[in-house]
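Ticket #172: bound-state structure for MU-OXO-diiron.
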Amino acid sequence: MLSKKIENALNHQIKLEADSSQFYLAMASWAEHNGLNGAASFLYRHSDEERMHMLKLVHYVNERGGKAIIPSIQQPPTSFQSLSHIFESLLKHEINVTKEINKVVGACLEDKDYTTHHFMQWYVAEQIEEEALARTIMDKLKLIGNDKGGLYLFDRDIQTLANAPVPSPKTA
Ligand code: FEO
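RESOLUTION: The complex was predicted; output attached.
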């Protein structure tokens, strides 16, 4: 059984994952609208992954005797300056998500809730990957700068990342 404190912390995380999904969906749509189809595929997929992160938490809270709260949808930005701006925002956002996940993990240790602590390790590992990926993409974009040919190749390459198989929440 979850304590109220842990239940609230997990519900806060559910909202953050849902907001992440909406944020990346807005980025994906902007990229698609601007003919950046590779980046759009990558971002649509990333948005789906965030929804999966949210669902995994929803199931966990309900299975552990708590009540998962489905948050309202927040309006994300409707336009972005550039692809670099998008991936900079994405990296910043992920760094914040990592901080929030660490807070949940800290609360689990304070409460001696080792079951939830164990469950949250999946998110801890996932954040390492997500931040590393966002940093790699940012490094590439910095190298490309304003080179249109480079941007064209980048958009084609990022499509490969978007086509990699999506890990399932149950098996990950
Ligand atoms: Fe679910 Fe990108 O953190």
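RESOLUTION NOTES: The chain has a mean pLDDT of 93.
TICKET STATUS: resolved
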